[in-house]
Design goal:
- The protein is an all-alpha fold.
- The protein contains 6 helices and no strands.
- The longest helix is centred in the first third of the chain and has 65 residues.
- It is elongated and about 110 Å long.
- Helix 4 runs antiparallel to helix 5.
- The N and C termini lie close together (10 Å).
């Protein structure tokens, strides 16, 4: 079905369709990695308890907690990538809506050339040339709308993407540093047969490290520069408010905004999440109510 959907794509949107589909696979891999990491975290904790070594059991249990939180960050990253992917879909939808305008212009041009060759004196030439003028005017508007929405949404999409990468990296670094603090509590001094290791005396300190990690995550704030945008100057017709055009718009603004998609296409799916640094380039991601499939 996915292959058939790709074949049905207008020529103009085929390349971005492939990008969006590939991102879908990448997001699935991050979600899988998150589940695996959380599972491994539980296994590490169980193994530590099974060793019968109280010190190792205590430290491994708390490392398991941190590993599990690292896994949760992978899942959050995947969710933020879904937001970025949904913005790319808005570009794809606009490309799809512009394709008929291009096709109509090319069709009329082709008909004129054929008629000039077969019946150069035909009165239909005048009618076709008038239709071509109208088609060119409509296409001119559509192409301007396409470049406007493409630039705006491209910046918005990769603003979300880059902010998500930075958030994931900084939070996982934060958790890993606390993990290294835990490792420092475990005494690995070799013992000879018959020696008994001393009782683990750092339980309270280990618990405090987990509390510190939780507090650091809660207080984490982004430290990135916002991406500036001039797209706020664009009107509802996807053109500058002061612009005047002779051609009629061929791009439905609701399609560019993600609220409506051609029947053969999928709709953007996004649940807006806190991705830092994405406040100046587009404040919302287009959402289609009832859409649930990420394809």
């Amino acid at each position: 079905m996915a292959s058939l959907r790709g074949i049905q794509q207008p020529e103009l949107s085929k390349k971005l369709f492939k990008v969006i589909k590939s991102e879908n696979h990448a997001i699935g891999a991050y979600e899988s990695a998150s589940r695996e990491r959380i599972s491994i975290a539980a296994q590490i904790s169980d193994w530590g308890e099974a060793t019968g070594d109280d010190s190792l059991s205590d430290v491994s249990d708390k490392i398991g907690v941190l590993l599990s939180e690292i896994g949760e960050q992978e899942d959050l990253f995947a969710q933020n990538l879904e937001d970025y992917r949904s913005v790319l879909k808005q570009i794809r939808n606009t490309e799809s809506s512009v394709q008929p305008s291009r096709d109509n212009k090319a069709k009329i041009t082709d008909e004129i050339q054929k008629l000039k060759y077969k019946e150069p004196q035909s009165t239909k030439l005048v009618q076709l040339e008038q239709e071509l003028v109208r088609a060119e005017a409509q296409n001119l508007v559509a192409e301007a709308q396409l470049t406007n929405i493409t630039r705006q949404k491209f910046k918005e999409a990769y603003d979300i993407h880059s902010a998500a990468v930075i958030e994931r990296a900084e939070k996982q670094i934060l958790l890993s540093r606390h993990m290294r603090r835990l490792l420092q509590l475990l005494d690995d001094t070799p013992v000879v047969p018959g020696d008994v290791r001393p009782t683990f005396e750092h339980s309270a300190q280990a618990r405090q490290i987990l509390n510190d990690a939780e507090e650091d995550l809660r207080e984490w704030q982004p430290s990135i520069d916002p991406v500036p945008s001039s797209a706020t100057e664009m009107g509802t017709n996807l053109m500058p408010p002061s612009s005047t055009t002779g051609g009629q718009s061929t791009v439905d603004p609701s399609v560019a905004g993600g609220d409506e998609v051609p029947a053969q296409l999928e709709s953007p799916v996004a649940e807006k999440r806190d991705v830092s640094g994405s406040t100046t380039v587009g404040q919302e991601v287009g959402v289609v109510p009832g859409e649930y499939s990420r394809q």
